[in-house]
Amino acid sequence: MVESKYLVEMSVRAGVQENPWGHIDYTVTVMPLVNWIKKYMPYVLIVVIVGGTIFMAASCKGSTVAFSNSSKVATLNIDVADSPAEMSKGLMGRETLGENSGMLFDFKTDTATAFYMKDTTIPLSIAFIDSSGKVLGVRDMKPLDLTPIEPPARYRYAIEVNQGWFTRNSIKPGYRATIDF
């Protein structure tokens, strides 16, 4: 009996029976972890992908507006200015604006606030829209002009776009705007 114990100790010292994981038994400790990863990793990936998509969609500040009458729809990508600081700045300082892009000003309640073009070098058009989504009026605005652009009536939303966009898309008073925040 002593001889067999001695032989086992000798073989361990010689590296024949050495466990590379130290005191961890691979089949008892590591294999269950590997099996768990194989079993649940697809679900973890799905949660990460869906969660990431939802986070990106929620953090995106861009929205759309669709203008329509009985026969035509025109869609516009918009940035939303809904805080006093964002509404005060508007498109000031921007040098360009995408062809089908604009800025929506949401006053949260009806207002008669006028607009002007201080520090705005892009020629713009503006549409005034009431709380039901009806376009009340469209006006063109000149760059850097401080003349107030008065709305035709009390409105809730105003949308600024490149000058002529409303004309090119035949948007007129009476059209409906559907805003997707």
Overall description:
With 181 residues, the chain is an alpha+beta fold. The protein folds into 2 domains: 2-58, no CATH class; 62-180, Jelly Rolls (Sandwich). It is built from 4 helices and 7 strands, in the order H-H-E-E-H-E-E-E-E-H-E. A 7-stranded mixed sheet has the order 5-4-6-3-2-1-7. Strand 4 and strand 5 form a beta hairpin. Residues 4-12 have low confidence and may be disordered.
Instruction: Give the neighbour order of strands across the main sheet.
Output: 5-4-6-3-2-1-7
Task: For the record, give the distance between the C-alpha atoms at the N and C termini, rounded to a whole number.
Answer: 83 Å
Structural class: alpha+beta
Shape assignment: elongated
Main pleated-sheet profile: 7 strands, mixed
How much helical structure, as a percent, in the residues? 25-40%
Give start-end ranges of low-pLDDT stretches: 4-12
The average pLDDT value, as a whole number, equals 85
Number of domains: 2
Structure characteristics:
Jelly Rolls, 181 residues, 31% helix, 4 helices, alpha+beta, single chain, 2 domains, elongated, 29% strand
